[in-house]
Design goal:
Elements: E1 8-16, H1 23-36, E2 41-45, H2 53-56, E3 65-67, E4 70-72, E5 74-76, E6 79-83, H3 98-110, E7 117-123, H4 130-138, E8 143-148, H5 152-167, E9 172-184, E10 191-193, H6 200-208, E11 212-218, H7 220-227
Parallel strand pairs: 1-7, 1-8, 2-6, 2-7, 8-9, 9-11
Antiparallel strand pairs: 3-4, 5-6, 9-10
The protein binds adenosine-5'-diphosphate (ADP).
Length: 240
Amino acid sequence: AAPFLPGVKHVIAVGAGKGGVGKSTVAVNLAVGLALRGHSVGLLDGDIYGPSLPTMLGLDALQTNIIANMLQPFYVHGVKAMTIGKLVDPEKPLIWRGPMAHGAFKQLVEQTEWGELDYLVVDLPPGTGDVSLTMAQLMRLTGAVVVCTPQLVAQDDAVRAVRMFQQLGIDVLGVVENMSYFVAEDVTPAREYDLFGRGGAEMMAQRLGLPYLGAIPITIPLRKNGDEGNPSANFQGKTR
Ligand code: ADP
């Protein structure tokens, strides 16, 4: 089996069958939330085709720093983060052949100065592909979290992502239902709209015998804080 990453206690991958379901949002907020609970946390942007972390963590103005051939992670929102998005022209398409994708991901993992971490959260590309395979070869994971929206078409793809993790020998820690419902707070009492069929991902988790980790509603602040690179704001006023 692949070795553990030295100095890293737990590696948790966040995957999804489809793009746009909120995988990066969950990865970012999982990492920031774990850090707020006092853990030392790294966040690796494994989505080398469409890195979201530069925007979601507000890395745009920060300079990439290399010391003794090692990439120094960006320390933001209590988390050590690294992304290919800070190593290439942000508007250049990232077209990787299989071996190049493998090399790019491996480099981000092995040539970043992660130091000692309780958790390394990996934001994977959507779907079932090269990067997940490389990841499984490079390091032993604690497990993977699968993010899914409630619609049937999203579930179908999520099932494929679950099966992929299982084939790679990676435990699936559970399923998160994102964009589960929308809360309209401009009416009293606040009204909830089941836009996409709330509970769909929960049913899928049950059907596959996987833990259901919970639902995240669609909210404007979650989108806005993501666009503004300020995930810490999602936790303001929250107690653990
Ligand atoms: P993925 O990584 O699966 O492609 P993202 O995390 O990038 O998806 O999310 C896509 C977009 O949807 C982003 O603009 C993000 O801020 C927004 N988004 C994701 N989840 C929610 C949510 N629960 N409420 C509001 N906006 C969300």
